[in-house]
Amino acid sequence: MRTPIIAGNWKMNKTVAETLELVREIKQLLGEAPENVEVVLCPPFTSLWVAKNALGRSKFSLGAQNLHHEPKGAFTGEVSPVMLAELATYVIIGHSERRQYFGETDESVNRKVKAALAHGLKPIVCVGERLEEYEAGKTNEVVGRQARGGLAGLTPEQMANVVIAYEPVWAIGTGKAATGAGANAVVKQAIRGPLAEMFGEATAQATRVQYGGSVTPANIAEFMAQPDLDGALVGGASLKAADFVEIVRQTAKVKA
Q1: Beta strands 122-127 and 231-234: pairing type?
Q2: Which CATH class is domain 5-254?
Q3: Helix, strand or coil, per DSSP, at residue 175
Q4: 3-state SS assignment for residue 162
Q5: Catalytic residue among 69, 95, 222, 246
Q6: What CA–CA distance (Å, rounded) separates 27 from 115?
Q7: Helix 16-30 and helix 48-55: axis angle, to 10°?
Q8: CA-derived radius of gyration, the chain
Q9: Would you say the pTM of this structure is higher than 0.90?
Q10: How would you write the pLDDT of the chain (256 residues) with one tens digit per residue?
Q11: Which of 117, 99, 100 is nearest to 109 (CA)?
């Protein structure tokens, strides 16, 4: 059984004070994280330390939103995996916004994935097609290429610590979520298919794959009812404690 994982990607939102408020509100509303769902909060770098302290010994995990592939050096403004390993368990890598605005490629994603694993971090590797690729019927081609490129050179043992997030770019922040059945088909064909070729069927079936893109309390149950979807990478709804908690609760209920 794959344990569902709900991760909240706060993106470039929340000051330190606002982080404290949101973490406390989530903890108050949810109590402890459900036994059958892993819950990850991914605040900005500036809030990781305060979020870690606010979470205390709870079962929530922390994730970062990016990292540099080198452990240290003259890379002004960057944050290394060594620095993050003291604060976070997970790290989001290759989000479509990183690819779109900051020029990340499958090759740079691959370097970051290997760096994260080398320093004890668990990567959440994002893949997904743009609107024009979706409309041209190239979804499986694009997503499969990103999965192969981002995970090239890993071992089945390393894959045990990797989560993949399928995020159709046309659905992120647009209110246009994919259908549950549509997302499940992409994951089965364009993600688990390549994983089986690269690492074997057992690894393909053991790897957790999230859905991301306009996830809300109103549609999460549809996605979680799909056999190949193991949670969600939540954007805007993760900034609202009540919405995020409801997404976690519904996931726990559907996946029970």
Answers
A1: unpaired
A2: alpha beta
A3: coil
A4: coil
A5: 95
A6: 31
A7: 30
A8: 17
A9: yes
A10: 899 999 999 999 999 999 999 999 999 999 888 999 999 999 999 999 999 999 998 999 999 999 999 999 999 999 999 999 999 999 999 999 999 999 999 999 999 999 999 999 999 999 999 999 999 999 999 999 999 999 999 999 999 999 999 999 998 888 887 899 999 999 999 999 999 999 999 999 999 999 999 999 999 999 999 999 999 999 999 999 999 999 999 999 999 9
A11: 99
Catalytic residue among 38, 97, 104, 167: 167
Q: What dihedral do alpha carbons 66, 240, 53, 71 form, nearest 10°?
A: 0
State the Cα torsion 243-2-233-24 to the nearest 10°: 50
CA distance 123 to 189: 21
The string over 138-173, giving b where at least 16 C-beta atoms fall within 10 Å of a residue's C-beta and e elsewhere, is ebbebbbbbbbbbbeebeeebbeebbbbbbbbbbbe
DSSP letter for 19, please: H
- Tell me whether residue 157 is one of the annotated catalytic residues: no
According to DSSP, residue 169 is labeled G
* Helix, coil or strand: residue 51: helix
* Amino acid at position 72, single letter: K
CA distance 60 to 88: 11
Do the beta carbons of residue 239 and residue 211 sit within 8 Å?
no
> What's the rounded Cα separation, in Å, for the pair 130 and 59?
35
Catalytic (active site) residue 95: yes
